[in-house]
Amino acid sequence: MRAKREEEYLSGNLTAMIDVVFQLIIFFVCTTNLQESAVDDRIKLASAPNGVVEKKKDPLAVKVYVSEKGVLSIGRTPISPRELTIILNKARADARGTIPVLIMADARAKHGAVKKAMDACSEAKIWKIKFTALKERAEKA
User: Fold this and answer.
1) Of 60, 88, 94, 119, which is least packed with CB atoms within 10 Å of its CB?
2) What is the pLDDT of residue 141?
């Protein structure tokens, strides 16, 4: 009688568990690529052939994009300078210290728009600011 009870206990329908595992795999595959797709490809960075290439990337860095028209954004979400200050204050509080800010400005952006991003950083008491540029510009064929 005991052997029969163990057989009943061990046998069961695993379809639901397999479905959940596949859904988790799909979820993790989709979310791992979101960071790369968050880069705004409408921003054309300036070229700095003599600049230093940074090998180590800080995962806590907040990337702020400045478009040619002076619009600030994080990822592809446009934000105002005040909203940027609030976001940076929250990120600094969550990190319990200073966080780096990476400003990625379009080559044709006015300095006033970049200054807005810098002012938001100083209001949030963040002094570690980096600017990005392209080491080599791809030649158009």
Assistant:
1) 94
2) 38
59 vs 54: CA distance, rounded Å:
13
Distance between CA 11 and CA 23 in Å, rounded?
A: 23
- The closest of 117, 66, 126 to 92, measured between CA atoms, is 126
CA dihedral 18, 21, 25, 31 (to 10 degrees): 140
Eight-state DSSP code of residue 105: E
Contacts of 115-120 spanning 24+ positions with Cβ under 8 A: 116/70, 116/72, 116/81, 117/64, 117/66, 117/72, 117/81, 117/84, 119/81, 120/72, 120/81, 120/82, 120/84, 120/85, 120/88
